[in-house]
Specification:
By secondary structure, the protein is of the alpha+beta class. Among the domains are: 100-163, Alpha-Beta Plaits (2-Layer Sandwich), CATH 3.30.70; 180-256. Helices cover 53% and strands 13% of the residues. It is built from twelve helices and seven strands. It has helices spanning 7-18, 29-38, 43-55, 74-87, 112-124, 142-152, 171-178, 181-195, 204-219, 221-224, 239-252, 254-264, and strands spanning 26-28, 59-64, 67-72, 100-105, 128-131, 134-137, 158-163. A four-stranded antiparallel β-sheet has the order 5-6-4-7. A hairpin with a 2-residue loop joins β2 and β3. α1 crosses α9 (204-219), α2 packs across α3 and α8 packs parallel to α11 (239-252). 32% of the residues are buried. Residues 8-75 form the Transcriptional repressor PaaX-like N-terminal domain. Residues 97-164 form the Transcriptional repressor PaaX-like central Cas2-like domain. Pfam families: PaaX, PaaX_C, PaaX_M. This is PaaX family transcriptional regulator C-terminal domain-containing protein. Residues 179-262 form the Transcriptional repressor PaaX-like C-terminal domain.
């Protein structure tokens, strides 16, 4: 039920979880490759992933003699900060049944890259797709969306409204067309089943492997869980346990996992 990470996504998880400070820090390329190989990827796939992240302006390559290091771009620093806010707030507070956000867009093919980035960011903000070009979020996301449209230079192709769902309709049935709530519940259950077994780690490498996989899988939940107001739709039954497990293991395994990351990425 839980998806295996793609190499580019896993690099972003590593950078977010183990690189501090994020601005100005350089990570040895060979160490990143070794870490990805340790997660089951080939060396070739690891190097291709790093190159593609450079091409996407998510990493910058820096040479130091014969060694190559990677630094985080300003775009990556911003994305990781946004990710932290979503990851460490998810499921911690009940959200009131306030205004919802509806966004529609007709972004032309000439702006395809911007459209694809918009879709990824909308999902991360908790939006679900009602139909092609029409998105719904169960919270007021006006400021975040307006800033995103301006950043991508597609404001002219979009419209946005705020409002409340009609009480005369079954909100859960309607929400089920925008978000796969049954699959979300199953993912939380699978997360609890996998990481409920891990209360400690015998080695630094084991701590790193468990914590990295856990962080990567938990990072997916903000793009899947709209955090629907509990007064309208009950929360996924295993979400609270998943959040508690994440908070506990994230802290418990932090020191040994960081030691392993630092040891491998030291040239």
């Amino acid at each position: 039920m839980l998806e295996e990470p793609a190499p580019q996504e896993l690099v972003m998880t590593l950078l977010g979880a183990y690189v501090s400070p994020r601005e100005g820090s350089a990570v040895w390329s060979g160490g990143l490759v070794d870490l990805l190989v340790g997660q089951g990827f080939s060396e070739g796939a690891a190097r291709i992933a790093l190159t593609r992240l450079v091409n996407r302006d998510l990493l910058a390559r820096v040479k130091d003699g014969r060694l190559v290091h990677y630094t985080l771009t300003s775009r990556t620093v911003s994305l990781l900060a946004d990710g932290d806010r979503r990851i460490f707030s998810l499921g911690r507070h009940d959200r009131p049944a306030g205004e919802w956000t509806v966004l529609w867009h007709t972004i032309p093919e000439t702006h395809r890259s911007a459209r694809e980035r918009l879709v990824r960011r909308l999902r991360f903000l908790g939006f679900g797709s009602v139909q092609d070009g029409t998105w719904l979020a169960p919270h007021d996301r006006e400021h975040e969306v307006a800033a995103l449209l301006a950043e991508l230079d597609v404001t002219a192709f979009a419209g946005m409204m705020l409002g409340r769902p009609a009480e005369s309709l079954d909100v859960r049935a309607f929400a089920g067309r925008a978000w796969d709530l049954d699959a979300l519940a199953a993912r939380y259950e699978a997360f609890v089943a996998e990481f409920g077994r891990h209360s400690s780690a015998t080695t630094d490498e084991t701590a790193f492997r468990v914590r990295t996989r856990m962080v990567h899988l938990f990072r997916q939940f903000p793009s899947l869980d709209p955090e629907l107001p509990p007064a309208l739709v009950p929360p996924p039954p295993h979400r609270s346990r998943a959040v508690a497990l994440f908070d506990d293991l994230y802290a418990t395994l932090a020191e040994p996992a960081q030691r392993h990351f630092d040891e491998v990425t030291r040239p």
